[in-house]
Amino acid sequence: MVTPAPSLPKDFSQLSLTEAAELLAARKLPPVEQWHPDRTGDSAMEIRADGSWFHEGGRINRPAMVKLFSTILRREPDGSHVLVTPAEKMAIAVEDTPFRAVEMKSEGEGRARKLVFRLGTDDLVMAGPDHPLRFGSDADTPDPRLHVRGAVGNGLEARIDRALYYEIVEMALADGGEPPAIWSGGARFALVDG
What region does 78 belong to: left with phi over 0, alpha with psi -120 to 50, or beta? Predict the structure, then answer.
């Protein structure tokens, strides 16, 4: 049985990074990578670039439903996205990225910094070696993303909202270094991918 992600116990802005780490450690997701059902089809669902979910053209307005569906989302080796259970695998259209990073907390400075992001689904993700940040190869047209889950390079990502990207840039520039980069969880992420 798949259950939706629990709501945060309090406002994200009030969470300490210690509390966020405890919530991250307690979160259990279904083992979607292990499920390979024979029954396949099309879900008639899509995730738009703004992070909103639609079914048969109508917006899904119940946050609990979006949270539930997000837990069974997987990206396939060919780059397509599916909703998968042990019984069936249904295609879902994803316009940009399936998740949006909408809030961020920072603790520490330089190499000791930790960044935790809240996604539009209330999931929390701490950037680091297992959840890398990438910003694109062109500084004039940044493409800020956070790896959420699945295989790095072909997993599920979150688009980092523009205001958060500017906060990251400010922190990286304040830290100094050439080329500018941001640290989180012991990993360094250049603001322009090399």
Answer: alpha
